[in-house]
Amino acid sequence: MFNDNIFEKWLDEKSQELVNKIGAGEPLSGEEMIILVLKAQSNHFYHLDKDLRDDMKELREDTARQIMELREDTARQIIELREDMDKRFEQVDKRFEQVDKRFEEMGDRLDDMLNYLWMISTAFLGLTGISIGFAMWDRKTSIKAAKEDIIEDIKTNKLKEFVFELQKLSKEDKELAKVLKSFHLI
Fold it and tell me: Residue 173: which H helix or E strand, with range?
């Protein structure tokens, strides 16, 4: 392969000799002019190469900066997104807490209603029991009073006389006789 350093060194030396020759006013041959053109092209390539390398370096730095900015922007957006998600989760948690409170309130109301229902049922059953007890007591006392009246009437013979008169009538009336027999009064 061709070594660039040897060529560059030879080209530099040759071109310096030719520049000195031009400075002395001596004419240049065609080959010497080609060497000067080659040196000019070499310098031009060197500057293009340097510019290209500088542009590539700048491009790399810009790319690295843009990537860094993108990373920072992405990280910032992720943080904002997390914060937004946290806020939304907090809102959802608050809503669930409100729903839980409503359920607790509904449960408390239902418990209160059930307690009232038990009280009403107990009161109704108590009143029913009292009514049945009163009816039984009233019947017992009524029957007792009626018994006492009948016994008193029997003692006073009013009922006895009435039954005696009915027995007399039953001799003539067969229907009345059947009724008195059914009550064991004949």
Answer: none
Task: For residue 184, count CB atoms less than 10 angstroms from its CB and return exposed for 0-12, middle for 13-18, buried for 19 or more.
Answer: exposed
Domain of residue 137: give its range: 4-182
Look at the chain and report how many structural domains it folds into. 1
Q: Which H helix or E strand runs over 28? A: none
Condensed to tens digits (0 to 9), the pLDDT of residues 39-90 reads 899 889 889 989 999 999 999 999 999 999 999 999 999 999 999 999 999 9
Is 28 in contact with 36 (CB distance < 8 Å)?
yes
Which pLDDT score is estimated for 154?
64
Tell me the whole-structure pTM to 2 decimals: 0.38
Using DSSP's 3-state secondary structure scheme, residue 142 falls into helix
